[in-house]
Amino acid sequence: MTTSTAAVAPTPGTTAAQPDGASVVVTRGLSKRYGRDRLAVDGLDLVVPAGAVFGFLGPNGSGKTTTIRMLMGLIKPTSGTATVLGGAMPGAAGAVLPRVGALIEGPAHYGFLTGRENLARLDAADRTADPATRKRRIDEALARVGLSAVGDRKARAYSLGMKQRLGIASALLRPRDLLVLDEPTNGLDPQGMREIRALIRSLAADGTTVFLSSHLLDEIEQVCTHAAIMSRGRLVTQGTVDELRSAVRGRLRVGTPDAGRAAVVLAELGLAHVATTGDGVEADLGDLAAEDVCAALVRRDVRVRSFTTHGDSLEDAFVALTGEGFDVES
Ligand SMILES: Nc1ncnc2c1ncn2[C@@H]1O[C@H](COP(=O)(O)OP(=O)(O)OP(=O)(O)O)[C@@H](O)[C@H]1O
């Protein structure tokens, strides 16, 4: 039995790591080795729930594009399996790929053709597309990405953001159950990035599952319901963005001239990893509410100069889980 898919994450608290009937992508032990010793993707178990905006996050060289190429049946895994929309890739590519819109390696259009002509060329190349309804498909795709007004302009006159949107329009010439976008905001200015993010949100709101790779942490936080974090070809973690953020407990920093007394109070409250610093004390906040900890310190005559918590961003999660900075190049 299938259930209708929602445009948002499943119930908060459920993990995305368990495949079920509503998973759009499931990989098991997926690996790709280039040559003898370059293990680009290493034993990947990925689950993308239907209706998610799924962020595939990792620094450059962490294996994102290689994974996407395997999911799209463009290259064969060395070992493991990849199932997309219920079909095992690459064998099921013929049945699966018409339901998938993909924008990999940036948009490729002819600058001397208009946006509309570029779409017409691509639509004509699709032997399953009925020429009689071509104009309607193109109009709808242009409207979907907000390019109706400039559809008759030459693509070379488009801004980078408009070119990227034309690329997404190409992927939307037919209804898609899954949209795969590899670094869709690469090279865009902040305005172009905002436009693409808004477009991704509206596509998701219409029920399309979006699989989006990015090396930009804040992009994933802004647009995704779920994320998987890659490092050096391996999956570090996956889940809803909220789960990933809260997987890293906040680190509390208290600025105080009474560091010794503060450390005793924090330890009595049960905070872990209490350590005094040059100008105060640090500890893991754990499940305690920051305001209660602060009140306890003040009650015990600790003079509090500053009181901050860190560690609720995806970047903190990445650093905590891998012990690396995010900008690693493998
Ligand atoms: N065709 C290839 N032959 C050999 N090595 C490759 C090939 N393609 C990728 N690699 C290597 O595999 C690793 C993963 O590359 P991949 O492009 O999948 O990472 P990525 O996360 O997509 O990074 P980027 O964002 O820079 O594209 C890198 O070390 C890369 O150099």
UniProtKB/TrEMBL annotation:
Alphabetic keyword roster: ATP-binding, Nucleotide-binding, Transport
GO molecular function: ATP binding
One Pfam family, short name: ABC_tran
PROSITE patterns tied to this protein: ABC_TRANSPORTER_1, ABC_TRANSPORTER_2
Keyword ATP-binding: yes
Keyword Metal-binding: no
Coiled coil, from the record: none
Domain ABC transporter: 25-257
TM segment ranges: none
Region (Disordered): 1-20
Family (UniProt): Belongs to the ABC transporter superfamily.
Name of this chain's protein: ABC transporter ATP-binding protein
Organism (species): Yinghuangia aomiensis
